[in-house]
Amino acid sequence: MPGATALSVAVLSAAVLGAVVFSIPAPALAGGDPPYLSELQSTRTMVLTVDSRASLLVCSAGMVATHPRPREACKALVMVDGDVARLPARPEILCTMQYQPVSVTATGIWDGRLVRFEHTYGNPCTLRAEGGPVFAF
Fold first, then answer.
1. I want to staple 58 with a disulfide (CB 3.0 to 4.6 A). Which of 65, 93, 99, 116 is the partner?
2. Cβ contact 137:65 at 8 Å
3. Is 7 helix (H, G, I), strand (E, B) or coil?
4. How many Cβ atoms sit within 10 Å of the Cβ of residue 87?
5. Which pLDDT score is estimated for 23?
6. How many Å apart are CA 63 and CA 99, to the nearest integer?
């Protein structure tokens, strides 16, 4: 049910962005005190999908996520400043050339920037080698 998955991801993404916006006091949204802007600029939240599975990753203190390995995934994203395309490949993982495509997405806010990443890996092993803990769910 690809349509249902897309709808679930869209709803989850909207919920994350809504939670971020509604957690900021009204004066900040109305151009009030600049210190409130830091709340949005320090947000590190991503909705991740691997084929039909979705996970919420929140890399901010005290927030709840559905990702099974949030510390490892957040550490990997911090090292590349939230740029999923720059995740380092793990050369110790050797993969066959078997074609069994796996599509992934990452959508969210990282330090005030909107992040959007889409990629199709050749097989699950390649995803593990290149996506690391971020897409390990």
1. 65
2. no
3. helix
4. 19
5. 44
6. 37
> What range defines the domain where residue 70 resides?
2-135
- pLDDT means per 10 residues, the chain with 137 residues, are 50 50 45 52 87 94 84 95 96 95 97 95 97 94
pLDDT at 64 (0 to 100): 72
Domain count, the chain: 1
Radius of gyration of the chain (CA): 16
What are the φ and ψ backbone dihedral angles of 52, each rounded to 5 degrees?
Answer: -100, 5
DSSP 79: H
Let me know: does 39 contact 131? Beta carbons within 8 Å: no
CA–CA dist 129, 75 (Å, integer):
16
CATH number for the domain including 101? 3.30.350.10
Count how many residues are written for the chain: 137
pTM over 0.90: no
- In single-letter form, the type of residue at position 1 comes to M
Residue 20: predicted pLDDT: 46
Residue 54 tokens read as: 């979705």
